[in-house]
Write a structure and sequence with these properties.
single chain; 197 residues; alpha+beta; eleven-stranded antiparallel β-sheet; 4 helices; 22% helix
Length: 197
């Protein structure tokens, strides 16, 4: 199971002298926290997304609506002007921009829009401060005293999570940063909201 893999990962981390000591209490708190946040599969967030790649960079205000595997991201101001809407799921996405619609794999559309090779289906987990269970196992998981993830590495991305706030669904991060070589992104969330009725 996912929790078993996480527990094994944390166990091995606790024996590594280069990492902070991870106690059994930390492990239990992380398991409880991740189980609770995994249940959160519908939300709306408002915030700002910044990104930088070898060929481009920029920032955009973002409104993200998620319902199970379906998502809609409204980006205002990417590349300094205009807006873009991405709708889709983990298999297919639609990009609406400049009165045109492109259809492709989610990763290809994200690459076209930001220049970053982001595993889009993992983002819905990363935004909650969790490793994606459908990707390679997270490495170097560092747990905060409150049981939340401070950082981990997945799919080559070094991810860090901060500014956690308690919501009715549990502790959720308000700042998510990712680094892959010279490529990076930062998502700063101003509001976590329940899904629209």
């Amino acid at each position: 199971t996912v929790l078993f893999k996480i527990a094994v990962t944390v166990f091995f981390l606790s024996g590594c002298s280069t990492q902070p000591t991870v106690t059994l209490a930390d492990t239990v708190s992380w398991q409880q926290h991740s189980a609770q946040i995994t249940e959160l599969n519908q939300w709306q967030v408002d915030g700002k997304l910044g990104f930088k790649s070898a060929g481009q960079g920029g920032s955009a205000n973002i409104n993200w609506s998620q319902s199970q595997q379906q998502y809609e991201l409204v980006l205002n101001g990417p590349f300094g002007a205009g807006s873009a809407v991405i709708r889709g799921n983990d298999r297919l996405a639609y990009l609406h921009r400049d009165n045109q619609t492109d259809t492709d794999l989610p990763e290809q559309l994200a690459l076209r829009l930001t220049g970053l090779p982001i595993p889009v289906d993992a983002l819905s987990w990363w935004v909650r401060g969790l490793p994606s269970p459908s990707k390679s196992a997270a490495m170097d998981l560092i747990i905060s005293p409150d049981g939340t993830a401070s950082s981990f590495i997945q799919e080559g991305w070094q991810l860090s999570f901060s500014r956690y706030r308690m919501t009715e669904d549990g502790h959720l991060p308000r700042k998510i940063s990712g680094q892959l070589g010279a490529q990076s992104f930062k998502l700063v969330i101003s509001d976590w909201n329940p899904p629209a009725k």
